[in-house]
Amino acid sequence: MSAASTSTVAAEEPNPASPHAEQVPAPASAPHAEQFRTRERQELAATLGVWIFLSTELLFFGPLFFGYLYLSTHYAPAVHAASRHTDLLLGTVNTALLLTSSLCIALAAVKAKPGREDSRPTVRLMGIAMLLGVAFLAIKGFEWHKEYTEGLFPSVHFAPKEGGSPAHVHAMQLFFLLYFAMTALHALHLVVGLGLCGLAAWALRRGKARAEHIELVGLYWHFVDAVWIFLYPLLYLAGRAGG
């Protein structure tokens, strides 16, 4: 065997001097921050931070849910009557859109796993999720306008089709006050989610985002989706549960 071929074989073998050379893990493709000992710890800290952030986000919705609970407990007939004024079809379509977008984000996180060099499927799925999110906001905007023209916006012009005693109408007005506050706050969170999703997709196309970034954006998106899963039955189905 020539000297040249001997040197080539030596270069291909990892480390013949160590019997455990094959068990040594390969170095991470991306470095971790110096305050973390390993990349796994950095990713764990990032995930924990997002969960803590999402927990604080619940504080925004907590008082509104508590207000709804109080109203539905003390003025159940008025809440049911007001709920029947919401547009069940539009609310159901929006629920389907948001659930589908959440599925797209979940698939995008899977596609972004390490070892998948092609980022185009991930970006494409995130783009679909964003389009569905925009469609949700467009339908919600149309729904708000429709309810405003029907006199359901809580103001001096509040005039639901199914009225009743002043106390009954006042309770219905409180329901729509909570309705507009909850759906507007949810829409605001969805707008933030669209911004995060777009930023992550942009960074991924330029090789500046990694799988954990997509997963963290997915956590926020699923949070927005989960909030709507609670809002939908409370606002649209409460007055229709009995047929």
From TrEMBL:
GO terms for biological process: aerobic electron transport chain. One of its GO terms (molecular function) is cytochrome-c oxidase activity. Signal peptide: none annotated. Residues 1-11 have a biased composition (Low complexity). Keywords: Membrane, Transmembrane, Transmembrane helix. Belongs to the cytochrome c oxidase subunit 3 family. This is Heme-copper oxidase subunit III family profile domain-containing protein. It comes from Massilia forsythiae.
